[in-house]
Amino acid sequence: GVRLVGSEMCIRDSTKYCILDEKGKIHYDKIVSGVCRVPDSSYSELTDKDSYYVFKDKKYLIGDLSSMLMESPIDVMSYEGYKEVSAVITSYMLHIHRNYNIDEIRLGLTPAMWEKKDEYLDYICDELGLPKEKVAIKIQGLSGHQCYKKYGIDPSSDENQSQYISENYVGLDIGHNTLDFYIVLDGKVLDYGIKGYLKKGACIITDNIKKFVKEEHGYDLNDVEAKAVLNTGLLKRRRRVFDLKSNVNRFILDYLESTLDLVEKEYGVQLDKVDQILIFGGGGEIIKLACESSEEFKKQIEELYGDGYLQIPRVASSFYNSIGYVL
Questions:
Q1: In sequence order, which residues have a C-beta less than 8 Å from that of residue 122 and are 6 or more positions away?
Q2: Which one in 100, 217, 229, 288 has a CA-CA gap of 20 to 30 Å to 25?
Q3: Cβ-based neighbours of 232, under 8 Å, separated by 6 or more
Q4: Parallel, antiparallel, or unpaired: how do β-strands 240-243 and 234-237 relate?
Q5: DSSP code of 72?
Q6: Mean pLDDT in the chain?
């Protein structure tokens, strides 16, 4: 039977992947997208050997471990860094799941880098030593449409989801760095409506958190710390805890408003035909979490957008692309 793996690398966040086994069951998981080259010097011997991953005779620290060294992780904002990290993480993923005998891989690429897709495919096949028929490059964002069409807003549910599936909607895929969206009218995706932007994802929220914490509290936060504040609403520093939940919710709301303004500008009058905006990716999780932890935030969203206009998957929001890749 075919065992497929679909993987989406989120810049400065985590690589989401899912494995479709021979029984048709989907297993999903994620790995932090940090990859750091370990220098060949004596002090690198101090690191526990088991934590290295050796790929093409180079040593790497992957995932959470990539922040252990003073060396900074490979920059994935550039295409060159992105493809290198993608090859290392894909190889690592195949390694940890070798008992599945995976025989086909589908990798996502943002519309913002889509013109590189052929070169990317060549590079991945060369690096991993795989024939081209075993690897497919899929468009990020749009693949969430495949998942939504099949599972609606709950990929884990067995109940019929058709009441949640709209024929006229905008799909909004919010990653940490990327923002990708598309429009579906009468059940068809409009080709020219597929858009991808770099540096327009949830990184805008974490940048605002960093700026706020610097101005109000005098601390410099890195990406990982800012993301922890975004997820918990709390800033922890040397045993002191600052509650920033209301500030964080304000930043989330501001981001959502400016993002929907961008969608409005892009689609204009076509948006009048749309009865739903599906928000998935890590940004979907962020908004869902804020709604669950704050009644006030939830009320504000309903006042601004009405009830049910914004749809967020009940589970697995950040896996919509990778599930879509294997369908």
A1: none
A2: 288
A3: none
A4: antiparallel
A5: P
A6: 88
Q: What is the largest CA-CA distance in the chain?
A: 63
Q: For a pLDDT cut of 90, what percent of the chain falls above it?
A: 61
213 membership: H or E segment, kind and range = helix 203-217
Radius of gyration (C-alpha) of the chain in whole angstroms: 20
Contact 151, 285 (CB under 8 A): no
Specify whether the CB–CB gap between 35 and 61 falls below 8 A. Answer: yes
Q: Say how far apart CA 164 and CA 151 lie, in whole Å.
A: 9
Least confident range of 21-25, 157-161, 264-268, 312-316: 157-161
CB 175 within 8 A of CB 281: yes
Q: How many residues does the chain have?
A: 327
In the numeric block, which tokens belong to residue 74?
């490979």
Give the integer Cα–Cα distance in Å for 6 and 322: 5
Q: Name the nearest CA neighbour of 235 among 212, 254, 203.
A: 212
Tokens of 321: 């692309």
Nearest alpha carbon to residue 11 among 107, 110, 77, 90: 77
pTM flag (> 0.85): yes
Residue-by-residue DSSP string for 258-295: HHHHHHHHHHGGGGGG--EEEEESHHHHHHHHHHHH-H
Q: Which residue has the tokens 């962020």?
A: 286
Helix pair 223-232, 282-293: axis angle to 10 deg:
40
For the stretch 37-60, what's the b/e string if a residue is b when 16 or more beta carbons lie within 10 angstroms of its beta carbon? bbeeeeeeeeeeeeebbebeeebb
* DSSP reduced 3-state for 34: coil
